[in-house]
Write a structure and sequence with these properties.
It contains four helices and no strands. By secondary structure, it is mainly alpha-helical. α2 crosses α3 and α3 packs across α4.
Length: 120
């Protein structure tokens, strides 16, 4: 895992939260990289790598996915990381796509697109 990829993920998350979250986000949602907990850095890096690999395995054709499909992939990868890092994660951490708030769906879609952009 590269720190660079994890940072791309985290910066895209923060940008998405700032753009889409209704009202004032919880401070932990916009914590700068240097203050992000180690487990969260590891999870961000793992999801970045999963998205990168998915894009590469598609021969670049993952760009043809809808914005929602891109977000769903990020959300599913993140859910797996929550199960990895927490024995009994909060229900909101492992909610399926239909249960996620719109701001989080938009943010996850933006993360996929940020990973795409980082590969060009």
């Amino acid at each position: 895992m590269t720190t660079e990829g994890a940072r791309v993920f985290r910066e895209a998350w923060i940008a998405g939260v700032r753009e889409h979250f209704p009202g004032e986000p919880k401070p932990s949602y916009v914590t700068p990289w240097d203050e992000t907990p180690e487990w969260e850095r590891e999870a961000a890096g793992a999801v970045y790598e999963q998205v990168r690999h998915f894009i590469e395995l598609s021969g670049g054709h993952a760009s043809r996915l809808s914005r929602e499909q891109k977000g769903r992939f990020v959300a599913l990868c993140w859910t797996a990381q929550m199960f990895k890092h927490f024995e009994d994660p909060k229900p909101g951490y492992v909610a399926d796509w239909p249960e996620l708030p719109d701001w989080q769906k938009e943010t996850d879609s933006g993360i996929f697109e940020a990973v795409e952009g980082s590969l060009k």
